[in-house]
Structures are given as C-alpha cells and as structure tokens.
Amino acid sequence: MAAIHTIHLTTQDGGALAFECAEDEHLIEAGARAGVYLPSRCRAGNCGTCHARCATGEYELQLCNSVTLPEEAVAEGDILMCRTFPRSAMTVEVAKNLADITSGPVRRD
C-alpha cells in the first residue's frame, strides 16, 4: 500500500484546505477523490491549467511539457498538479481563489 500524505492548499485570496494524497496518485486525482476540484484540463502536463507552486514538501514531478513548465520554474518549486506525486506532506500555493477550486466538478474536454 502506498504511503499517504496530507496536501495543504492555499489560494491567492487567503483560502486554505487540505486533502490526503497517496504516493501513487497525482494531486488532481486525490483532490477529486476528496471532493476538492482543482483547476485542470489535459491531465497530461501540457496545458498548464493546474500550475501551482510547492512551498514545502517533497514530491516527484513526472514528465511534462518544458514550454508549459520550464526548468527554471521547476527549480523554483513550480509544479503541474496533474504530474505531481507527493513524497511527504506538502503545502501547495495555487494562483486561484478558493471559489474557483471548490465550485464544481473537474472539467473534462
């Protein structure tokens, strides 16, 4: 069984929420399972809709589009939540308001 970590999410309007995420699931998937609908579109690391910044914690960032998430941004802690698998508890900063995260189901195109 994969280890489970707490993901603390903060929003640009000062909102905060938390959910559990196993090491074998990405943040978007774990959020949806917990009823936390994070901004996402492609879920393949190409569009950048799920862009965020990891303030604290360890994670594995799987392959994503280097135009969407350049190496310099990765070095500063930027992540794509659809490609991020936690390796410890994390604090993630999202440049969205809390209402943008909790207002409806994950959009699928």
Structure description:
The chain has 109 residues and is an alpha+beta fold. 16% of the residues lie in helices and 32% in strands. It has 3 helices and 7 strands. The strands form 2 sheets. Strands 2-1-7-3-5 form a 5-stranded mixed beta sheet. The termini are far apart. The mean pLDDT is 90.
Q: Give the overall form.
A: globular
N-to-C terminal Cα separation, in Å? 32 Å
**Poorly predicted regions:** none
Tell me the strand percentage band: 25-35%
What secondary-structure arrangement, pairings included, does this model have?
Blueprint: E1 4-11, E2 16-22, H1 27-33, E3 51-56, E4 59-61, H2 71-75, E5 78-80, E6 84-86, E7 90-94, H3 98-102
Parallel strand pairs: 1-7
Antiparallel strand pairs: 1-2, 3-5, 3-7, 4-6
In short:
By secondary structure, this protein is of the alpha+beta class.
Name some characteristics of this structure:
109 residues, alpha+beta, two-stranded antiparallel ribbon, 3 helices, 7 strands
